[in-house]
Amino acid sequence: MTTYFADRRPLDRNWLHRQWRHLRLWRRFFAQAVVRETHFRAHFVTTLLVGLVQLGLGIVPTLLLFGFTTEVHGWSRAEVIALVGVFQIVTGLIATFVAPNLNRMTTYLTEGELDGVLLRPVSSQFYLTLRWINVAELTNVASGIVVLVIGLVQAGIVPGVAQVAQAVVLLGCGLVLLTAVWSAMSFLAFWLQSVNPIGFVFLNLMEAGRYPLVFFPVAVRTFLTFAFPVAFATTFPVQALAGDLGWGPVAVGIGLAVVALLLVRLLWRRGLLTYSSASS
Amino acid sequence: MNAVTRNLRVVRRMTAAEIAQQSVYRGAWIIFMLANITVPIISLLIWRTALASGAELPVDERYVTTYFVLLGFVTMATSSWMAGFLATDIRMGKLSSWMVRPASLLVGFVANNVSEKFLKLFALVPMIGIVWWIFRDSMNIPADAGRWLLFAVSILLGAVLVFTIDILIASLAFWMDDVSALVQARVIVASVLSGAVVPLALMPSWSRGFVDHQPFRYTVSFPVEIVAGQLSGRELLAGLGFQLGYVVLFALIARVVWSAGIRAYSAVGA
């Protein structure tokens, strides 16, 4: 019989094993989300329809703008449409994997749900940021890819393998950076208690990603590259696909993503120190 | 005491109570208003860039700047968010307890609307002031007080119009189980037709007649146009007439639907 005193195999033998275990766990979360979605088919259809309408609506300003001119700062209508496609992909991915979690941050802290998370043998930050997945939002990623392809074809851009690789890596960096920013804003809940409206500010600021970086004044460009790095998620990937970007910005993106992850990790640790359970 | 004065007193008391209650969330209001002006500012920068790079817009830089600076304020002042809540109250039978009270449930929603807008003003006006100051060299500022008075009247009428449209949509909950799709549809349609996304002046010329006369123009765009645009006296008068007409029309329809709904109402658990 095994008792608490018996020798047990440690949960993680080393750092790599620990990461692998979290990856397997995340795969389970995803499988569970897919099963869950099959129970709520109406939700799937509504999400798809709302996503399509919002995509159409999001293109309206761009179409109107290019009704008055053929190019703005070197960007043609087709290229901006490709950019709207990338924007749809990024917002779709965030809505699938990140938003369902960070929108719960206030409840985690004010209702004491974090207590239960801290007791589990997983990284609490991993669990809070990636536990819930909204599979239906992946339809927006699909429609985004369609729009991106339409834009690229209209613009006559045929990216090579290297360009696609650059774009994918940059988009990944953009996702990590944006998630880090939203996480950091949400973790302020440790000090401010209620942070529910933070999600609104984040999503509204994201809207800037619908337009190429050069459409903004220089000060705003800096802000959108380094402080609220939406440029890495939309403008840079499209420029990479068009072949206008070298590997330099890709390296900068990876560097920034690593720094952002470390900073958020630090903020989380610091926040946990101030956490005094809501239930005790 | 007649019904109108009594209702006004109820609204005043309930508004005061709501303000006291909502003041707890001061920080949240500031964050909300920050989100509220983000998209207008992004649009402002985009259209100014388009103008600067030689786009042939039907309006000038002053119009675009004034329009987007004021937009955040006007959308807040004329907004209404009750449809979902009212529909829930109808569906869950919360309406029952109001039917034995001396005032309508709608009075509570009026008080909620007025109190939240009052608190939002304190967060929003300083922010708009800062944006205004940044762009002060290219703003259209009408000198005569008459325009500002018209602006205020038009905002008030716009707020009433949006509120009645909301009552109308929520009233359908008397017959439908779920109106959230309708609410969503109204938000989406209104965001384009009210001029909250793109100034209606920039809509293509083939849509002119329809865009200029549909009701949503009078919920956001028209009040802003009074300050930003060069509307002639005639156009101002016609616009106000249309706005007043839509308010009366929608109020009548909402009243008919609401009272028909009350008669059809059979409460959950009653």
From TrEMBL, chain A:
Keyword Transmembrane recorded: yes
Keywords, alphabetical: Membrane, Transmembrane, Transmembrane helix
TM region positions: 44-68, 80-99, 141-162, 168-192, 213-233, 245-268
Pfam families in the cross-refs: ABC2_membrane_6
Domain of life where this protein originates: Bacteria
InterPro entries: ABC-2_transporter-like (IPR010390)
Name of the protein: ABC-2 family transporter protein
Automatic annotation (TrEMBL), chain B:
Coiled coil feature spans: none
InterPro entries membership: ABC-2_transporter-like (IPR010390)
Superkingdom of this protein's organism: Bacteria
Spans through the membrane: 28-47, 67-87, 118-135, 147-175, 187-206, 236-258
Keywords, ordered alphabetically: Membrane, Transmembrane, Transmembrane helix
Protein name stated in the entry: ABC-2 family transporter protein
UniProt organism field: Kribbella sp. HUAS MG21
Organismal lineage: Bacteria, Bacillati, Actinomycetota, Actinomycetes, Propionibacteriales
